[in-house]
Amino acid sequence: MARIPLLQMSGISLTFGGDPVFSGLDLVVQPGDRVALVGRNGSGKSTLMKVMAGLVEPDQGEIVIPPGKSVGYMEQDPGMEGFATLGDYASSGLEPGELYKVERAGEGLKFDPARAVETASGGERRRAALAKLMAEAPDLMLLDEPTNHLDIEAIAWLERELGSTRAAFVLISHDRAFLRALTRATLWIDRGMVRRQEQGFAAFETWRDKVWEEEDQQRHKLNRLIKSEAKWAVEGISARRKRNQGRVRALQALRAEKAAQIKRQGSAAMSLEAGPKSGRKVIEAKGLSKSFGTQQIVRNFDLLAQRGDRVAFVGPNGVGKTTLLKMLLGQEEPDEGTVSLGTNLEIAVFDQTRAQLDPEMSLWDSLTGDPEMRVSGKADQVMVGGQPKHVVGYLKEFLFDERQARAAVKSLSGGEKARLLLAKLMAKSSNLLVLDEPTNDLDVETLDLLQELLDDYDGTVLLVSHDRDFLDRVATTTIAMEGNGRATVYAGGWSDYIAQRGDVAEKKAEKAKTSKPKQKQEAQQKSGLSFSEKHRLEKLPAEIARLEAEIGKLEDLMSDPELFTREPVKFQKATEALVERQEKLAAAEDEWLMLEEKAESA
Fold this sequence. Notes:
Elements (H helix, E strand, L loop, with lengths): L6 E9 L4 E10 L4 E5 L6 H9 L6 E5 L6 E3 L12 H6 L7 H11 L12 H15 L3 E5 L7 H13 L3 E5 L3 H7 L2 E6 L2 E5 L6 H32 L2 H6 L1 H16 L20 E12 L2 E12 L3 E5 L6 H8 L7 E6 L5 E4 L12 H6 L5 E2 L2 E7 L2 E4 H7 L16 H13 L5 E5 L7 H13 L3 E5 L3 H7 L2 E7 L2 E6 L2 H8 L2 H8 L6 H10 L3 H28 L4 H4 L1 H34 L1
Parallel strand pairs: 3-7, 3-8, 5-6, 6-7, 12-19, 12-20, 14-18, 18-19
Antiparallel strand pairs: 1-2, 1-4, 8-9, 10-11, 10-13, 15-16, 16-17, 20-21
Helix pairs in contact: 3-4, 7-9, 19-21
């Protein structure tokens, strides 16, 4: 018996005063679907989601939701007029017997239902909107960047909730680990076309690259055919051309087909302007302690950061990561202990609050009005890496078009604001980069490029992020801040930290096994694996696949015979990274084999 779709869109077309965002779009969401919605920043992901939610009216087409079925949308900027507290907003529309759901979601997502709406931050409002959606439990959930403003513990809670729900959901996120864990199908928006694949996000990049490769092959064939036919048209005898007007018309059609092809948007032309080399020692902290009232941020904390290190700070929201960063940079005095900074430091900061961007300024003025980027006597140029560039040309390098140059910053999407901030950051030379939540709102391709830039950057990086995949790709050292003054230094990225520390969440789950139904306990005993081992076995294939992909990229890079002579530093870094990942892959494969054998023997 055929299932009745939860949502069906037919012939949807939408234009915002220019090129069509969508044209003739057909889309179906079935019960139980777990869909990743992916595409470049500005491709129309959020717009499509708003059309699905009924918040944006299409120019043409029909949207059908069966009677008795509900669709819920997590608003990015929820209107809370008329509500005194976040809890009032989140529980609106619920029956009295369901209010516990908001409290439960509030605990998991870490927002205070008693917080007054007028004093709540944007992040707190978004968490309240997410809690409202989770408590309402519609048949279809539309989630636009739900992990923004969540720390890793809250992301893990949301991942578990969505992993166990019976509802269908469509999910936009920059968090690769989150998408890989949850999705079983992928919608890809690319130049106004929406493609669907019945595989989760883990298979997306392979699929995307194959589609683009086939496109390039078809374009190459078309160009060759046009060249051949054009040569015949020029060189052919006049009478023969008259007898073959059909062939001439076919050539015109080929040229029209080529003209109608929509060029793929390239990658942002980002590059980090490395300043002069800093000293070998960049930051040395000894015996740092800091408290605010009864809240202890750090206690007797030591750190030595050397040139080239990538140091990540992880921990719950509000634990004091930004405070510790400020102490290490000499911007905040510790209660006890000392911080000494190395010589010749040039510091550049990416601020998660986007405070460096004035929402009322235009993109043009945001760049030309920056004292460090201003070119004396040139109102249309900015200084980039010591060289003047036209402001529109520089904006185009970060995928902004000419029309956006005079638009207000407040008109930009979250991803576009992040790209503008990166444009300001990367125009300036530095040898110490401070990146506070740089991954929020960035698309997958820009995240890949940012990771590559950080790999090649000759300076030192201090990074705050809740993106587990990005931490694994970038960090060489992880500082875990766990509250009550505990700040522990671990080698490697997020996965390395978890492996060395032992995941607290897993330990809690292990301890809670006694509260599980007897059948589940017996099933775990029969598997022969502990809870943490079973969880690790489930995670290892994705980790192995990631390492294999990274090794493949590094081998492709090193296959260039000119790389060693042209860029010896890059060749050396690639060699070291390849050896490191090969060692990690061998260890992961051995661990997987051991756990598989243990499970099978049981």
